[in-house]
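Lab notebook: predicted structure, single chain.

Context: the supervisor wants predicted structures on file for every construct in the current expression panel, including those that have not yet been purified. This is the next one on the list. No modifications to the sequence; it matches the entry in the shared construct table.
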Amino acid sequence: MTGVFRPAVTGLMACTSLVWTSLVWAQRPSDADAAATIEQTRVKALAYARSLPDFMCTEVIHRYRQDLSSSRVRKGGGAAIFPAEVKWTPTDKLTVKLTFFQQKEEHKLIAIDGKLTGRKYEELTGGIGAGEFGGTLQGIFDPASQTVFRWESWKSVRRRRAAVYVYRVDAAHSRYLVVSGTLSENQKAIVGFHGDLEIDNETGELLRFTYVADQIPKEVKLDQVSTTVEYDFADVGGRSYLLPAHSKTEIYSPSLSVRNDTDFREYGKFSSDSIVTFGDGK
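Prediction complete. Output recorded below exactly as produced.
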């Protein structure tokens, strides 16, 4: 009887545990718990850049463009309406040496489509970006930004329970700069922005976040700018750090749209004579 009875009890316990877990995942946190999670993440985010060692890595940036202005329509002179799917045409692949030294990012363009180049990263046409290593997080979590946070849902991220929050920073308290044009001739504006955050429920670490520009002035000639950054653990000098693994930026304008898909690879301790490799070319 014992041999039959124990499996039945074990099965009942497993079933009860499953129901309890489902209830926990469905349960909304209290306002106090939600605020505590944001504060825990705020502390980590504001200290993030200072917590990182000097390091370098390779950015592999696949760039795409979409030229057809007919892919979006405007009704009554209002904002552009975008289709559910946009067909992107590959433009090029950039290999960039990124160094993080004394809490500052530096990008050096090494190759375009696998061929060495002497061009400067800052002078490239098309979309370029920076700020994955703390700059944008400062803009979200700095108390001066007066960011409004709201718990949205639970999510599983790499088998970790993550809390999803939506947030918004208004233009009056924002430091988010959007720019169009060239280095010598451009239009720019500080705009408000919003997005979502995926936060490890146990550690308060940020696993993924998005930010989308709000109400871009017409003179900047951009319809929409959005970025997603995903983090994962990487080894730097024998220690594990939570670092950007992938990012995606999409920029829509009336005549041209661009997208950058960036992979961060080959993290290592900073060295002035370090060599950048080109991997498998993918």
